[in-house]
Amino acid sequence: MRKFILYTLALAIFAAIGCETKGDTKAQEAFNRGVGNMKLGQFDKAISDYNKAIEINPKLAEAFKYRGIAFGAKGRHDKAISDYNKAIEINPRDGGAFNNRGNAYKSKGQFDKAISDYNKAIEINPKLIEAFNNRGNAYDAKGQHDKAISDYNKAIEINPRHAIAYYNRGLAYKNKGQLDQAISDCTKAIEINSKLVEAFNTRGIAYYMKREYDKAWEDVHKVQSLGSQVHPGFLKALREASGRQK
Q1: Could you tell me where the DSSP H helices lie in 7-76?
Q2: What CATH number has the domain bearing residue 34?
Q3: Does 96 map to a domain?
Q4: Over the range 150-180, which residues count as b (16 or more CB within 10 Å of their CB) and which as e?
Q5: Total domains present in the chain
Q6: How many CB atoms lie within 10 A of CB 138?
Q7: Which of 161, 177, 239, 245 is the most buried (most CB within 10 A)?
């Protein structure tokens, strides 16, 4: 099941709209163009804009950080890490840069390095909900589900309306075989965000595992109504177990 490691990316993009950066006005203009292009999903154009901003002002930490985000969105994680390294060198107290570098390490499967960076991000900013969420993802990927749940608990404590944290905690409970808790958390995530396809999908699988096939079908139909595909293997298993085709 998909974890929301890139949730920090979306948050970072929208948070940056209209932000002011230090340094030359031309560097700021190039940086802001990059943020606008990234919002549109035009990552190559964004990288070009950040290149220009850095050329004008090589000390513009935000340009390195956001170029790292753009490289990460393109799957170029080593380049992203290089940019986060530079951003951290310029501003060692930027918790967001450590968080984002952790995301890049996690995408490379380097979970211990990712956790180390999330730890640093939390040390700098104990309210950085993204770092708790992402560290939970890394722990869950390592099979340390209780530690993952603890981090999602903290994220929910910081923001009780954080649908992603509820969904991720539900997925961790499912991975532990605690299906009722998984269903409860996915239901809460859906209450907060009724279009969160992954929560319907995970809840449907949990219902299937509990042999509550009619409820599983309801969630399958909801996933499909939201324009998403259900894994063919799961559909085949549900059809065989329920004696229904749809």
Answers
A1: 7-16, 25-39, 43-56, 61-73
A2: 1.25.40.10
A3: yes
A4: bbbebbbeeeeebbbbbbbbbbbbbbbebbe
A5: 1
A6: 27
A7: 239
Interval 37-94: pLDDT, tens: 999 999 999 999 999 999 999 999 999 999 999 999 999 999 999 999 999 999 999 9
Work out the number of other CB atoms within 10 angstroms of the CB of residue 80. 26
Is 44 inside any structural domain? yes
193, part of any domain: no
Distance, in Å, from the CA atom of 70 to the CA atom of 80, rounded to the nearest integer, reads 8
Radius of gyration (C-alpha) of the chain in whole angstroms? 20
Q: Give the pair of three-digit tokens for residue 226.
A: 């939201």
Which residues form the domain of 21?
1-141
Q: Report long-range pairs for 91-95 (Cβ below 8 Å, ≥24 apart).
A: 91/61, 93/124, 94/61, 94/65, 94/124, 95/120, 95/121, 95/122, 95/123, 95/124, 95/125, 95/128, 95/131
What does the mean pLDDT of the chain come to? 92
Query: Which residues 6+ apart lie within 8 Å of 138 measured at CB?
Result: 102, 106, 111, 114, 115, 118
Does the residue 176 lie in any domain?
no
The amino acid occupying position 110 is Q
- Judge whether 100 and 91 are in contact, CB under 8 Å: no
pTM over 0.85: yes
Q: What is the pLDDT of residues 164-185, one digit of tens each?
A: 999 999 999 999 999 999 999 9
- How high is the pLDDT of residue 157? 98
Total length of the chain? 246
Token pair 């299937």 is found at: 208
